[in-house]
């Protein structure tokens, strides 16, 4: 489905990114495997993970090159796209998958912990997408696939930085889709459920935590890859500005914010009438204070 296309997958040295890179190559894409080889918190550098995935792809008869630049700076994002152009002469798809975690309760979170996560997830998605955009525009084609998270779409505890970044990524994706629709450039999001380093930090010191981890372990990163390959292909030319989620063998189309209820008062509002009229009328439609796990409350199938 992606025969001959050139695809960059960031954070592809392991987990979800690795499986996307492998399946892209299996379906005929030439792949730039990007990974700085850092720890879950973004520390330490190792070229090994990216090169190992390249060797896996080549051993299976595919084409791939490694890149170890960071997505968190504009200049290095340009070098990642430059690797695709130098090796394969074009760029057709970018999968913005690279990520780190610095989990902490909001009131205890440092500015550095906030900045580090936003730089990789949100700034990284912006820098990578922008670096590819002019090439997409020139060739009147291109697909951007961004990894978001239900931590941002719904909510999670101890992840203010990650949740803000991931919800920001969904808004960025929608803006790109609107701005570049006339250039036939598509931008979509996937919120993945899968066992990877990004969820391996879930506490297991309670029975509930242990049970949650065991369920997530059933959801392998390979389950995410088919949707990513499809979104990169010409078969998905009509799919734009959507947010999907993959949970084991389930694919969800996620909602996007829209008005759900309104109240009107012809003479306008005062704080008193807001309290007496507006809030009682709207309260039946309030959303509960839920985490991702509360909304996805059934076992994966």
TrEMBL record:
Matches recorded under Gene3D superfamilies: NAD(P)-binding Rossmann-like Domain (3.40.50.720)
Domain Ketoreductase per the UniProt entry, residue ranges: 5-198
SUPFAM superfamilies membership: NAD(P)-binding Rossmann-fold domains
TM spans (from-to): none
Record-stated family: Belongs to the short-chain dehydrogenases/reductases (SDR) family.
Name listed for the protein in its UniProt record: SDR family oxidoreductase
């Amino acid at each position: 489905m992606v025969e001959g296309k050139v695809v960059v997958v960031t954070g592809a040295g392991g987990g979800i990114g690795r499986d996307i890179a492998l399946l892209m190559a299996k379906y005929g894409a030439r792949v730039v495997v990007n990974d700085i080889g850092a720890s879950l918190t973004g520390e330490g550098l190792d070229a090994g993970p990216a090169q190992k995935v390249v060797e896996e792809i080549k051993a299976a008869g595919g084409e791939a090159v490694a890149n170890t630049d960071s997505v968190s700076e504009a200049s290095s994002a340009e070098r990642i796209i430059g690797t695709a152009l130098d090796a394969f002469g074009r760029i057709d798809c970018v999968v913005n998958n690279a990520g780190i975690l610095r989990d902490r309760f909001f009131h205890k979170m440092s500015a550095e912990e906030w900045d580090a996560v936003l730089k990789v997830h949100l700034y990284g998605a912006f820098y990578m997408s922008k670096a590819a955009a002019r090439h997409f525009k020139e060739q009147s084609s291109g697909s951007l696939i961004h990894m978001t998270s239900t931590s941002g779409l719904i909510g999670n505890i101890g992840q203010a930085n990650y949740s803000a970044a991931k919800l920001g990524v969904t808004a960025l994706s929608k803006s790109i889709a609107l701005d570049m629709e006339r250039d036939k450039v598509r931008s979509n999001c996937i919120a993945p459920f899968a066992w990877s380093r990004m969820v391996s930090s879930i506490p297991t010191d309670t029975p509930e935590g242990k049970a949650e981890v065991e369920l997530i372990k059933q959801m392998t990163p390979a389950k995410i890859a088919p949707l990513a390959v499809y979104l990169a292909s010409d078969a998905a030319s009509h799919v734009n500005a959507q947010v999907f989620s993959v949970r084991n063998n389930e694919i969800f189309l996620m909602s996007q914010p829209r008005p759900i209820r309104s109240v009107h008062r012809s003479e306008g509002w005062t704080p008193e009438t807001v309290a007496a009229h507006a809030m009682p009328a709207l309260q039946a439609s309030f959303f509960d204070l839920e985490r991702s796990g509360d909304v996805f409350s059934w076992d994966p199938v």
